[in-house]
SGNH hydrolase-type esterase domain-containing protein (Bacteroides oleiciplenus YIT 12058), 708 residues
Amino acid sequence: MRTRLFIVGLLLTMSANSQILYHDASAFPLLGKATDATLTRYERLPDSLEHISRKPLWDLGRNSAGLALRFRSNSTCIAAKWEVRNNMSMNHMTPTGIKGLDLYCLQDGKWVFAGSGRPQGKTNEATMVKNMVPEEREYLLYLSLYDGVTSLAIGVDSLSMIEQPAVDLPVRKKPVVFYGTSILQGGCASRPGMAHTNILERWLNRECINLGFSGNALLDLEIAEVLASVDASMFILDFLPNATVEQMKERAEKFYSIVRAKHPDTPILFVEDPIFPHSRFDKKVAQEVKHKNETIAAIFQSLKKQGDKNIYFLSSKDIIGHDGEATVDGVHFTDLGFMRYAEILYPLIKKHIR
Amino acid sequence: MRTRLFIVGLLLTMSANSQILYHDASAFPLLGKATDATLTRYERLPDSLEHISRKPLWDLGRNSAGLALRFRSNSTCIAAKWEVRNNMSMNHMTPTGIKGLDLYCLQDGKWVFAGSGRPQGKTNEATMVKNMVPEEREYLLYLSLYDGVTSLAIGVDSLSMIEQPAVDLPVRKKPVVFYGTSILQGGCASRPGMAHTNILERWLNRECINLGFSGNALLDLEIAEVLASVDASMFILDFLPNATVEQMKERAEKFYSIVRAKHPDTPILFVEDPIFPHSRFDKKVAQEVKHKNETIAAIFQSLKKQGDKNIYFLSSKDIIGHDGEATVDGVHFTDLGFMRYAEILYPLIKKHIR
């Protein structure tokens, strides 16, 4: 025990005196992209859509929601320098969630939170974890949810190593692909790792791709093509909070069939509109939710009748609990809401993916 | 059903056309203060401490953490205008939690989230809920956690009523009094209602008093006098994340005995330092937490040996779960952390309060 304390003391002294050396992150694997054909590395939509997609949709595609860097290091601390595109702010989400970073470490096969990168503004520098015993570890670093990372460097002790991951976890073959709204994009997780697609990526130990576009999950058909381009294990269609009843009637089947055409047997899950907590009181919202959910149920039943066996439907009844406490504003999920949603989705996805 | 829809439609049309009229909140009961002898209404420390307490402690006492307004209205919408003292920002907490408002409504004896007031800056205006059926309801409005509300007006439909509560809920007799740190003050709840003292106030339906002072729960003895001035049902002493081992050795027994002298039989609960998620990796923090928890355990045992029967000790082992996901930065609780902490504290407090 005394020896162990002495060693820990020695290591802490060493780390206090060591310098941090930054390494460009472009050398390390990046999870969470539907395609590599993007304008810059840390964005989500193919460059071919730059002049095709509606501008707000295209701009949101440049946010780095769901993207995650993998590396391995024996450093006693992990730091980062990063720059963001818009220096975005919102009054119902933390800057750490909007434009920060979030570090996880693999321990006994599970991803464990190690520290978050709290941002200062457009250019940022943060030590996410320090005072560690210098053992080799596998890291997973989640990027900003509501802004776009334009450059990223990882800092480690100057005398330590940083290198390629030694294991392919989360597994990159056959990712799970999500399409949806601001909630899907991670609004309003306190830090990037708490968006439910990122929670599920860790729990499933399978790459997840977040195609969430705040306010803009309007069933744009070119996004269906992006989904269809991925050799996915499952597709989750979670667009109801944005798409209107008219848009659904006009495009939901078409959107679906673009994906289905390329993936005849892949499970596709439709998700109902959440019963937003404020709709207990706001009768207008309650009516809208009811109308949307009736519409998606009818569309689902119609597809089912056409003989599709690999489509599923998630009722929103239980997805964020029944206490009304899972959102920041009646709509956008907090970490509590995302945790509950992940707990509902996990067994459903686990059961269907191969 | 058709009639009901017609009525709802009519009411929505009415509310869309009605004007909002603002009423100064000073006419309505305010919960969460240890004393009414404060410089201005929406702050927590007695004015007598203005030139006695350390300046950072005094300044934090002017934050409105745990304060909540009670009123009754039949309006179809509830809005607010409010101004804050510092226009505070932090990168790991939402502006809504820092300087926003949070509205709950009593339904079947339970407090249910109705909507949050998202801030714009120093002066703010927000509609927290709208499109309601115009029934008389009891409301509880939580004030900003990390800033001080300096003025507050409640907006209702111009032709509706706003008046004194019809029921004394949460019960104001014998409140529960909490002393502690930034975490206790509500860092980093997404909205004011999710600080654990506010969650517990709703679950217990008993007034709770939040004497949390970010970074400044250093066992200042005049704060023990503030606690002792309250005819409390229980005291929760939750200062470990701030107080050093030296401060605890020097002042914890003295702090305790000031409270105990005036309340010989009131339950007093000591809370251990949380096992912060980042301390899995940060060995320096892990050692500090261990040392502090050993110190408080020794102090508790010593008090116990002196014959006190009404003191209790909460191990931090389970308070925020074991998945490492309950904080935004390894230290400060998110809504997920506060919910878990409230779930642990609730039965303990419920059992002891009269």
